[in-house]
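The methods section describes the discrete structure representation at length, but only in general terms. An entry of this sort, consisting of the sequence and the corresponding backbone structure tokens, reads as follows:
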Amino acid sequence: METLTVFAAAVAAYLIGSLSFAVIVSRVMGLSDPRSYGSGNPGATNVLRSGNKLAAVLTLVFDALKGWLPVFLVERFGEPHGLGEGTMALVGLAAFLGHVWPVFFRFHGGKGVATAAGVLLALNPWLGLATLATWVVIAVFFRYSSLAAIVAGFFAPFYQLLIWGAGPTALAVAVMGGLLVWRHGPNIRKLLAGTESKLGQKAPAAPAAAPKKGHH
């Protein structure tokens, strides 16, 4: 019974994570699909390139919240059902995977930065704050959101291991950090080539659709 409960919690967390708020918020606010401009990534940074700061902020908040919520629910209500740190780590990872490969959006998801931040803040608030501080420092000095995410994703597992030790949380953080860095592969190539967009830089206008041929 406990195994079934753990499985159900993980599936629910994955489905919550599959809600791509970059796309949802953009549709509600009448903006272009974020997968159609800029980097094509459905995340807050790319939504910011649309020029709509409110849409970017809402995307950031909801993407972080969907990572935080499943972990919080297990922590708050899971103990009577035998759900502990292992399940918290599992549902956090499941929500992250849902964001990266969302079943509701043909598995075309974001890179997971905001969702990972929400998961970390729920699993270990101090770890989450340390990782966010790392992101902020790199972003302020270099103005590259991707570089900040890569550095933060790389250091998060080490913070956990060095300060709080190994365990289910460390494993989940390591998997998320590794996937986050891997998902930024194209950004790493752009950074090396000097072609990566900086924070707040607007996306180039989408090319106009070719006129359809037909009888006049």
About this structure: The first helix runs from residue 2 to 17. The chain has ten helices and no strands.
